[in-house]
Design brief:
Oligomer: single chain
Number of strands: 27
Largest sheet: 7 strands, mixed
Structural class: alpha/beta
Bound molecules: ligand MGD, iron/sulfur cluster, molybdenum atom
Strand content: 15-25%
Strand order of the largest sheet: 5-4-17-16-15-6-7
Shape: globular
């Protein structure tokens, strides 16, 4: 056969982080040959990162899952038999229906990671149609604190607008040069810096972004809300706030002003380790820049005080007049596409809010997923009711959730576990049935649906999947038809793509030709319509505090975990630029860049402990210990160490879940103490100690 010539196709990067860079992909003989940035990309204008460029390698590993599997030995023993698709789907359906009959539909939980594509919403639909209110996802530590606190405070999720000129970027616990976020790509922020925007970085680590900053505040981990309250204090005391906006559009300003009087830069300095002068300077710079974009990151959501941290930052955006202004923090409006509620058939479960496991624990209204800590209580203790079955996709809980030991117990305890995956992971290895999935480049998909960034991205199929791999949405469509009335499901699963697009007037192939759809830019809508809160204003003081048992004002009460002289260092982490959380450790070109997990330790601290660069170190908290390789570097504070996340070893023993205990950060975390609003555990800011590993 004549060799095919390379053909260049357009798509958007996916499932490597949450970014969404537009790509030009070179395809030849059903293989991805090369990936590069599309200069016309709306979010990236040609930019890509290394892992995006090698993302085709995810598809070709010889050990990729290619056939449906059924557990042959005991759970977790690593013994499998190949079965047909019909057998896998039938068996899964029978088990889930058996559990439903015995305990009710809510005894089956549906597991997802962070939304990666359309399958996330098909999963919610599957749960709704099945009758279970329980979607377990890591939203407790990823976006829900920011999104829902935004919605409760100002009626929307305020995202930094890098598409319009901004005078200053305040990067708070965010690390865009390493970790692109939904709709927020490093290149857009860098463009703004090139055009003269100033940069303030709030981060306990001196990141590359911090190196480029006009001002870097190295705060003590776990004190974000104290620092933000200090900013509010300076801005109000020095009358630097936007008077007109505050008068017309905020509720409770005078009370907030009284409340933050106590957070003087001097007091805040004692809590945060940041000296008073830089606090004053940063607050003034932020307040005086018109507009300023606050790029808030994941780390503010990683301890029990997430609600206070997010609240204080929304108040900061508001009083400086940065909400809903171009180059500030905006409400991104969706294009004309199908609403989420309709897509997931929310109408079928009107009592979901009250029925969900989380409701029993009094989580904040509008949190529509179950925090993993509460899911495990339901499995292991039957609180508030038993959960016995699990169907999971796009997630690896054994490594990704806090307190891996409890996760292991919960998965071992369940009556039935089905997982869809690309590769055998620690969690997949605890399943009864495994579905092999087709992946990015092999499926037609829509990106960024339902995540509040006001756009959807085309991710068309470019190559065929190998062997028997199938798209997640097909698997769930087929499972759904076995679990419920066929009317809820499509003859052709790709109709789901058309459903989303129908209101726009585009077919999926027309959408692919267009590349993306974006909602209208609507700035300062509050001038006509107010804010979508009970008072119609930004609620600096929460009017619903009494009703929902929330705090009226953000405050700093305690560190996430008590100080402990036995554990004198503070443990934090930052996501790796080469991996998405626990994913893709098996991709060679990524693994070459980061063969082993690395913990950053300050030279003084390393010297005190007799540790040299490259040596193995034991990291220990009250909850467990792991081993990682020392990287001696002054980018961390002497009292802080930053360990790598998400580690397991695909080359390790399958019967031992690929060494899931050895270097996995979440062996060091706990779910004893949880934030009330979102059920968030302390993923960071944990007292710890280190020692040389002696073998
Ligand atoms: N200690 C600590 N814990 C954390 C965090 C932290 O910072 N510190 N971060 C938290 C955050 S922000 C998040 S979002 C979570 C992430 O939690 P998860 O989403 O559970 O973690 P990932 O490692 O991204 O796991 C994704 C899994 O999905 C698989 N996968 C990828 N694409 C597909 C697909 O198309 N279909 C299917 N079926 N599977 C696919 C991958 O192979 C991988 O095993 O972790 C949280 N856990
Ligand atoms: N390459 C890559 N990209 C990713 C991901 C990935 O795993 N890898 N994950 C995706 C996901 S799921 C998410 S949610 C986002 C997360 O992306 P980011 O929001 O950037 O989150 P992190 O990398 O967890 O942490 C960001 C910064 O917080 C700092 N930090 C640590 N502790 C504290 C603290 O106590 N206070 C403050 N102020 N800062 C602290 C860290 O030093 C780090 O520089 O990225 C997405 N993009
Ligand atoms: S930044 Fe994210 S979206 Fe862009 S190429 Fe890298 S992995 Fe892909
Ligand atoms: Mo996340």
């Amino acid at each position: 056969m004549a060799e095919e010539k390379i053909r260049w196709e357009k798509t958007h990067c996916a499932r490597m982080d949450h970014g969404g860079c537009a790509l030009l992909v070179g395809v030849k003989d059903n293989r991805i040959e090369q990936v590069k940035g599309d200069p016309h990309g709306y979010l990236n204008r040609g930019y890509t990162c290394y892992k995006g460029r090698v993302s085709g390698d995810r598809l070709t590993h010889p050990e990729r899952l290619r056939y449906p599997l059924k557990r042959a030995g005991k759970r977790g023993e690593g013994k499998w038999m190949r079965i047909t698709w019909d057998e896998a789907l039938d068996e899964t359906a029978q088990n889930l229906l058996r559990i439903k009959e015995k305990y009710g539909a809510r005894a089956v939980a549906f597991g997802a990671g962070m939304p990666k594509g359309l399958e996330h919403f098909v999963l919610i639909r599957l749960a709704n149609v099945f009758g279970s209110p329980n979607i377990v996802a890591s939203q407790d530590v990823c976006h829900a604190p920011r999104e829902l606190t935004g919605i409760h405070t100002c009626g929307f999720y305020p995202v930094a607008d890098f598409h319009n000129p901004t005078q200053l970027i305040l990067s708070w616990a965010s690390n865009l040069l390493s970790t692109s976020e939904e709709g927020q790509i490093a290149s857009l922020a860098l463009d703004q810096l090139k055009k003269g925007a100033r940069l303030i970085v709030v981060d306990p680590r001196r990141t590359e972004l911090a190196d480029r900053a006009d001002l870097w505040l190295q705060l003590r981990p776990g004190t974000a809300q104290a620092l933000a309250l200090g900013f509010l204090n300076v801005i109000i005391e020095e009358s630097l706030y936007d008077r007109d906006f505050v008068e017309k559009h905020t509720y409770g300003f005078e009370d907030l002003a009284r409340h933050v009087k106590q957070y003087t830069p001097e007091k805040v300095s004692e809590i945060t380790w940041v000296p008073p002068e830089p606090i004053r300077r940063a607050a003034r710079l932020y307040a005086e820049a018109k507009p300023a974009a606050l790029q808030w990151g994941n780390a503010i959501e990683h301890d029990v005080n997430a609600f206070d941290a997010a609240r204080s930052l929304v108040c900061l955006m508001a009083i400086c007049g940065n909400l809903e202004v171009p180059g500030g923090n905006v409400n991104a409006h969706d294009p004309k596409i199908m609403g989420l509620g309709e897509f997931v058939r929310a109408d079928l479960l009107p009592d979901k809010r009250r029925e969900m496991i989380g409701a029993h624990h009094g989580v904040i209204p509008r949190l529509m997923t179950v925090p993993p800590a509460f899911f495990r209580k339901a499995v292991l203790e039957g609180t508030p009711y038993p959960v016995r079955g699990y169907y999971g996709m796009c997630t690896n809980p054994l490594v990704a959730w806090a307190d891996s030991t409890t996760t292991y117990k919960a998965f071992m305890d369940l009556d039935f576990v089905a997982v869809s995956e690309i590769f055998m992971t620690p969690t997949a290895s605890l399943a009864d049935i495994i579905f092999p999935v087709a992946h990015q480049f092999e499926i037609n998909d829509i990106g960024h649906y339902g995540i509040g960034h006001g756009m959807i991205l085309a991710r068309p199929k470019l190559v065929d999947p190998p062997d028997e791999c199938r798209p997640d949405i097909r698997i769930m469509n087929d499972l759904g038809s076995r679990l419920s009335a066929p009317e809820y499901w499509h003859k052709d699963f790709e109709e789901f793509l058309e459903d989303v697009l129908r209101p726009s007037g585009f077919t999926y192939s027309e959408f692919v030709a267009k590349g993306y759809l974006k909602g209208p830019d609507r700035f300062r809508l509050h001038r006509e319509q107010g804010f979508r809160t009970p008072t119609g204003k930004v609620e600096l003081k929460l009017s619903t505090a009494g009703k929902f048992k929330l705090k009226e004002f953000p405050e700093f009460t305690t560190l996430p975990e008590e100080e402990d002289p036995e554990y004198p260092l503070i443990l934090i982490s930052a996501k790796s630029r080469y991996f998405l959380m626990s994913s893709y450790r098996w991709v060679e070109r990524l693994r070459e860049k980061r063969p082993r997990p690395v913990v950053e330790i300050h030279p003084e601290t390393a010297a005190v402990h007799g540790i040299s660069d490259g040596e193995d170190v034991v990291i220990e908290t009250k909850y467990g210990e792991i081993i990682q390789e020392a990287r001696v570097t002054d980018i961390v504070h002497p009292l802080t160490i930053s360990a790598a996340l998400g580690w397991w070893f695909p080359e390790g023993d399958a019967a031992e879940q690929f060494e899931w205990r050895k270097s996995n950060f979440n062996m060091l975390t706990s779910i004893e103490k949880l934030g009330k609003e979102f059920g968030t555990p302390n993923l960071k800011n944990i007292p710890c100690r280190i020692r040389r590993y002696m073998g």
